[in-house]
Amino acid sequence: KGGGGEEEGDGNEGENDKLEKEEEEQAKKEDEVPDGLLTFSKDINCRKVYVFLQQTVAALSPGNPELGLKLYLQIANSADRCALAASRSGSKEGPEFSAVAYEIMAQAFLLYEDDVSDSKAQQRTIVAMVGTLLACRTFERDDYEALITKTAQYAAKLLKKTDQCKMVTLCSHLFFTGAEGDPSAVRSHPQRVLECLQRALKIADACSMASPANVQLFVDILDHYVFYYERKNPVITDKFISGLVALIQEHMGNIGFDSSAAVAEARAHFSQVIRYIKQKKIDSDTAEWFAPIVC
């Protein structure tokens, strides 16, 4: 029995020595890892991370669709940035990240259609969609076309006419992302910008009949016309701006001495836009371009 105990003790000591040796080797390996780098025991790639994120948001979305949708948009923006970084570094993974971004955006759109029903939440969501789409840079042309067209359709189907007008006007930015010579301008569609603004004008006209305070919608649209005109959108001409200025002046005259806060705000905004145009008529760099505008 004594001999057996000694043998057992020797065996335990040998096992302990083995464990200590393994721990020393592991510690040595860890010492060799540069500071700031993490090591993982499993092979994890970015695609798996995005799948996990997508599944997590899908599980959270039923309880709060608006939050889930915004998380989808953030994930899509992250994937787009990965695609951009990959393309700049010469990596072949760029198209894969871009495809992930599109898939996540598609999930966000489905969530909007199925679960976001409150009109104010819809408006906030469309604003977030537009911001995300303008921030993304790596979508394939057809994918981008599909996404911005769908977003514009959402804007045109909002319940309230005033919300429709504001969001359709905002969506015009999706079709003109840069100026001449800007690399991002390859996705610009000047004519569709005009179509958005013209549609917004029709909606604003209907709204102005319901309430004089809605003249603010015309002023917002004028502000956008001036924005695109200054950036040399070829289909936004001085005649559109001059005509809209005259229309707003007519509406302001019909309103008379309405002292409501909404009308006062519209008057102040209109005056600010007119001052801006007149200043551009004076500045040497822009005087010739803005000279034809009548205000």
Automatic annotation (TrEMBL):
It is found in: Membrane. One of its GO terms (cellular component) is retromer, cargo-selective complex. Residues 1-34 are annotated as: Disordered. It is a peripheral membrane protein. InterPro entries: Vps35, Vps35_C. It comes from the Eukaryota. The keyword Zinc-finger does not apply. GO terms for biological process: intracellular protein transport; retrograde transport, endosome to Golgi. It holds the Pfam family Vps35. Gene3D superfamilies: Vacuolar protein sorting-associated protein 35, helical subcomplex Vps35-C. Residues 1-14 have a biased composition (Acidic residues). The keyword Methyltransferase does not apply. Residues 15-31 have a biased composition (Basic and acidic residues). Its main location: membrane. Keywords: Membrane, Protein transport, Transport. Belongs to the VPS35 family. This is Vacuolar protein sorting-associated protein 35.
